[in-house]
Design brief:
Oligomer: homodimer
Number of strands of chain A: 32
CATH class of the largest domain in chain A: Alpha Beta
Strand content of chain A: 15-25%
CATH topology of the largest domain in chain A: TIM Barrel
Strand order of the largest sheet of chain A: 11-12-13-18-19-20-21-22
CATH architecture of the largest domain in chain A: Alpha-Beta Barrel
Distance between the termini of chain A: 65 Å
Helix content of chain A: 25-40%
Structural class of chain A: alpha/beta
Number of helices of chain A: 16
Largest sheet of chain A: 8 strands, parallel, barrel
CATH superfamily of the largest domain in chain A: Glycosidases
Number of domains of chain A: 4
Largest interface: A-B, 91 and 91 residues
């Protein structure tokens, strides 16, 4: 038998601590990782707090900025079944922490018993005991007015008991509400327990800005911004795109890597191995003689040009997100300066990226098992720090799942320590547990499998898991219908209706979403190879010029979607997603409900791009705060149409040739918990 | 921002440890409390083990006696989705522990890539790299035969590469299975992670004897054993009961407290406050002038008599369980010797037990907040130690929920440290989380709410929670249809059929159960008061003499139930319970399935004591290893009847006037996972 189990119970050095605290929520792996919240959020904490016997337990929520001096305290309220709750709000960016403290409260226990006593002798005796407890509270109160008041109360109660007052009189004095509340303010904490979760000293919270929870991304290649076939675009050209992106209602503009592009083993158009001299190469082959991750490709402009673009973007309500791809082209300066950061092949040459039998000879990955890992980590975090210093606050990180987890946990914490407003998007299209781990260790948002989830069953299962599974505390989905790497099969063959339904699904199912444009809004659907997902004539390997003013463009439709997102808090959070029953497998329906049901949006999407589909949609009026047979208005935010609905079942029909989606705001006289009626 | 988050990730001092380990199961509160198992059990451990990138991860299960030197190691096997499993068996009583170690394995990663390479130059280069890895493994293997073999293999592979061997030849040499397995035995563990759960250094296991998992209890009052009205029974009288209890098939005989009974404020018959001089008092009023918790009531006999009874019980295959009630009568010696272990009222008198307005003036509870708690704990654990020294190995603990949790965790661990065969049953009829906490901190078994769960819905919900909820790893139910404190309403009014159905439910739903007899088998159903649950003329306050040979007795029925329990492993475990659909609310049906489906018992109980009830029972033939339309035999272990069933739906009818239960063993030619047919 282990001696470990024969000593005092874990974490206790005083056996008189009778209270236990269990099952604190929210928590990620019992405090090993932070939960994620945004500025202004209220965090509701619950815990099981219990003790032996019938004594009364009291507990408080403790919370503070991470590591910052004294705890703030909020009394927790009982929910029944030994569960308690309290809430606090986070009003600054950065780390916060919370835990729970509980104790068996002698004064509250006395009070609970005293109320139920009936025998006069018993009540007098108990009154004397109570007076002693109040006296102790007075001592704990120190010398102030409250101490005096408590002392006087104790004297009054004791004197009445000694004088033989009757039960009613003694209970009137002893159970005095106002003075009891004062006494409760000075509890006997000698046997209080401050809960330490298994994995940490408290439960951590990462508080980010609201954009970490809700954002609309537009990706384009700056080098294609010139608008003239064959001319390399520049940051100056990008400035001209800002109004276009703003009109569509996006808030983040994301650029593929902007650094010098390797010349050694550069890839040609359509990913060929024999480039022409004027081929521009892949921006993800980072680095050339003129510089690496902290340099800018000459053709795009200077650092000053970039900073001017950042400023102009801000003036259009847009932020620029940079793509950080931690890998090197063979001519990246680090390859010469720090060969020790790379793995070697048996012949001494540096190991290029590979996934046999595939070879990526234009890319050298870093070796995260190098003995020089500390220097490598410093250099890599320095890349973020450099661009943060230039004013960038959002990073899309390329393939973070091929770099060591401990590096990311360290690097993200390090950046946030001085710049808690920096947002990191994880581009990890990989195994689910790897994606979750990256989210746990700090990435603000994550790419998802949405790109390949097409059917009602797939979408329902996936978004139920995302919004209700354990990941809801740390994994913030960012849904993309396409990326420069992925032209999904559905977009290749479904036509305009599929582009509409896919972007509408992304924009309404997830609080953050993005598109790679103008390929998306211009319905680009030509694949390099049948059965593949690569774009034909991909911008990854060549310049493109786009007919942004095409009458086919979905720009206006996307603008309407983003407008709906901006106007409806329900669409700005991943919480509050409820799938609805509709009796047609080609129609998917869901509601998004904001906190306190102040905003309800119902979406219906026709997943069949070729035929009108109709069905009966079921809602639970009670869950929406409606009376069973109440009439309510559904306002379609896409078409502007108004529908008068009532009760639980209503008819929906969507013609993909016109518009395959309803995004409807529910407008009704609502029943509120407090029975106060109002119009939404 | 907290500095905490800006340092190295938790638990890491080498950033090259790329592997992570998560979600290890089984575990109770991530290792804060032990899982419970019994001797001979196989423990299947699962964990998520993953790393960045495409390198191959290897992991092992580490396990050992708690704190005992070197870990045993078992390779874990992949289950898909980054989850791994391995098992170990526990062949000694006491504490065990396990955890998981994982690493990114360079040799396995090389092997995985090497198999997929196609380019001859590439394969030759990789062969040289592989030879170097094999050489490193040889170095780790030390100087033995395996080292020599590996060195030779490395040389062969390198020589072939240098000589320009073709791809097939290099892959034949490099992928050699036998030699690869040897190399795998000497892995590169420089960057291995040994998982430390949040709450502990490893995951603890408490291994008890099989009776902790499966036991049949018979409670009776030794003082009623004389069989002659008015004569006080003795341990010698109890000896004569042993064949009776044995014939019924029980394995534990449990006695209410056997200590001297307090005379001060002794309770009279039927819990009255004015006892007659010859009233015997409540055995739970422990202690009198002649002794306390380590003394025996004179009338029962001497310590020698008790030890003889223990021995005789053993000869009948029975164990004696003692009731430990940590409270004192006012004349318990400790009240005089250790007044500091009790709370005082305002007048200096010792505080009796109370739950206002109720008073229990014959009982003094201990004060677990006394400054002298250490001495109190020592004295209380000394009570267990004394009776353990006399040979007692099972304790039923009275009201453990009114004593401090830390005491129990410490005391049970302390007893188990020298006597790991001791079993503790928690008599905590209280709030669910308190009951669970007591189970977590060490009690082997727990009383349950079964006593008040009567309907199909109640029983289904409750036993589903018990057998499938988180408690399944630590909360072992012990189901009682009655106790000396509880004559449930159902037994008061339902007649013989309810006694039969209740004991059959207890004996088949739970692996451990018990009855308070002879009140139970003799159908005692008279309550002290209408609407109450106290027995009239309760043995708690007076002697009773029982007509054990009554023709009404259920002794034979109970014997058949216990025989079925003894013959069917499925009934000896709480795992493997599956409720079955049956289209009649008065019929409840369930299967118990042993590990590997080697034993299947199907029970059907008519919950209506007054009418025959019939219905169609549904089973899933596939889940039972049967072909869809296969015929199979159901052998009723109560009546001996045989039914030939087939397929998924079969008819059942139960007449409560005859027997309200089927306990049926399924006998069929089974389909096994390995397609080997056999007769059960």
């Amino acid at each position: 038998m282990s001696t470990r189990q024969a000593v005092m119970p874990v974490g206790l050095d005083d056996g008189r601590i009778r209270v236990v605290i269990e099952r604190v929520t929210p928590a990620v792996d019992d405090g090993r990782f932070p939960i994620k919240r945004v500025l202004g959020d209220t965090i509701r904490v619950e815990a099981d707090c219990l003790a032996d016997g019938h004594d009364v337990v009291a507990c408080v929520l403790l919370w503070r900025r991470a590591g910052a001096g004294a705890w703030s305290r909020t009394p927790m309220l009982p929910m029944g079944n030994d569960r308690w709750h309290a809430s606090f709000s986070v009003d600054q960016l950065g780390g916060w922490e919370y835990t729970v403290s509980a104790w068996v409260d002698p004064f509250l226990s006395w009070r609970s018993d005293f109320r139920r006593r009936v025998d006069p002798d018993d009540v007098r005796m108990a009154a004397l005991g109570g007076a002693a407890l109040v006296q102790e509270a007075a001592t704990r109160a120190g010398g102030g007015a409250e101490a005096g008041l408590l002392l006087a109360w104790a004297d009054e109660l004791a004197a009445a008991a000694v004088a033989g007052a009757d039960v009613a009189e003694l209970q009137r004095i002893g159970l005095d509400e106002a003075r009891s509340r004062i006494a409760q303010g000075f509890p006997d904490l000698r046997h209080a327990l401050v809960h330490r979760p298994g994995a940490a000293a408290s439960y951590p919270v990462t508080v980010e800005r609201v954009r970490a929870r809700c954002s609309s991304w537009y990706e384009f290649f700056p080098r294609s911004a010139a608008g003239v076939p064959g001319r390399h675009g520049s940051f100056a050209d990008c400035e001209a795109w800002l109004p276009y992106v703003q009109r569509m209602g996006f808030d983040v503009v994301y650029f593929p890597p902007i650094h010098p592009i390797g010349r050694v083993r550069r890839k040609g158009r359509n990913n060929t191995l024999d480039p022409r001299p004027d081929d521009v190469g892949s921006p993800w082959a980072v680095g050339a003689a003129e510089g690496g991750h902290d340099a800018i490709l000459n053709e795009l402009g200077t650092l000053a040009d970039f900073q001017r673009l950042l400023q102009r973007a801000g003036e259009h309500g847009l932020e620029i997100a940079l793509d950080i791809a931690f890998q090197c082209s063979p001519d990246h300066p680090w390859v010469r300066q720090h060969p020790e950061w790379f793995r070697r092949r048996a012949d001494g040459s540096i190991q290029y990226a590979e996934n046999p039998p595939k070879k990526y000879q234009d890319i050298y990955p870093f070796d995260f098992e190098t003995p020089h890992w500390r220097a490598l980590w410093q250099a890599l975090v320095g890349v973020f720090e450099y661009w943060v210093a230039q004013g960038v606050r959002i990073f899309r990180v390329d393939n973070p799942h091929t770099k060591a987890f401990p590096f990311w946990e360290w690097a993200i914490a390090r950046i946030r320590a001085h710049s808690p407003d920096v947002i990191f998007l994880s581009e990890a299209f990989t195994r689910p547990k790897v994606m979750h781990r990256l989210a746990k260790i700090g990435f603000s948002q994550s790419y998802t499998y949405f790109t390949w989830r097409n059917t009602k069953r797939e979408l329902t299962a996936y978004f139920t898991e995302l919004t209700q599974g354990p990941g809801r505390e740390y994994f913030r989905p960012n849904a993309w219908p396409n990326t420069p790497d992925i032209l999904p099969e559905a977009l290749q063959f479904g036509g305009r209706a599929v582009f509409m339904s896919r972007v509408a699904l992304a924009a309404t199912l997830a609080a953050s979403y993005g598109i790679y444009g103008p390929a998306f809004e211009l319905l680009e659907h030509r694949a390099l190879r049948a059965g593949g997902e690569e774009y034909l004539d991909s911008e990854k390997f060549e310049l493109r010029s786009w007919a942004r003013d095409s009458p086919e463009s979905l720009a206006d439709f996307i603008a309407v979607l983003n407008c709906a997102r901006r106007d409806n808090p329900a669409l700005q959070s991943d919480a509050g997603l409820h799938f609805l029953r509709i009796d047609n497998e080609q129609l998917i329906a869901y509601a998004k409900v904001s906190a306190e049901r102040s905003n309800i949006v119902v979406c219906v999407v026709n997943l069949d791009p070729h035929h009108t589909q109709s069905g009966w949609l079921e809602i639970d009026p009670d869950a929406f705060g409606l009376e069973p047979q109440q009439a309510y208005q559904m306002h379609d935010l896409i078409t502007g149409a108004h529908f008068l609905w009532s009760g639980a079942r209503n008819y929906v029909s969507l013609d993909p040739a016109r518009c395959p989606v309803h995004v409807m705001q529910l407008r009704a006289r609502m029943r509120r918990e407090n029975d106060f009626d109002y119009f939404l």
